[in-house]
Amino acid sequence: MKTEDILDLFHQFETITNDYEGIECWSARELCELLGYSKWEKFCNVINKAKSACTEAGEEIEHHFPYVGKKVLLGSGAERIIDDYMLTRYACYLIAQNGDPKKTQIAFAQNYFAVQTRRAELVQQRILDFERVQARNKLAETEKRLSGVLYERGVDSKGFAIIRSKGDKALFRLDTALLKRKLGIPDSRPLADFLPTISIKAKDFAAEMTSVNVQQKDLHGQNSISQEHIDNNLAVRDMLLKRGIIPEQLPISEDLKKVERRLKKEENSITKGKKK
Q: What is the pTM of this model?
């Protein structure tokens, strides 16, 4: 395929995108013509194959092939509703995979939507990674602030570590050391660096409540503050359990240091690209 043909097709695929309920979609009618199908009926056969592939992949057809009617003006001046679908990027990819590969347009579409789908997956993963890093930073700030509050009330750094471990035991049913051992986390590394986002936020919420209540209740000393922190973690655990989330059964997540390095590397790569 010539470079000019690729660029032309790329432009055509980009210009027929639609925003359907906040999602980037392509009209099946427009895609039919762009993919070189002269008859809608033949293209419907490809759409049906793509729907079957969607179901086999465990995806909901309604999410990727929402039906929409389109009004067309007849020669007599009357209007008629014709069938159409708003196809997601994934639906377009499945259609391309089930189309006639001999068609130049289909060959291009197979690659175009494969890249588009992969790009969306990468963006989604990056957002999830970024949210996890943000949650971890927020927890660090909360614990630093709580440590300061406790220090003013007679609890040193060693006492704070004990209180935090008791909070972990209330939340996860295992103290910090045992939970690290269960998850295979090095003793020298913070537990939160290997927890999923929901667990990090759970720890943060409990620590925030402890910080507020210690001051409002004017608590002093390690024993009373420990009990307060335990109660808050138990309350958070109870909330999670009611929503079907069992904290200690959630899988270990990727080392947050590696995630941070990857995000930073990507940022540097983008920055260098802009300078060129």
A: 0.64
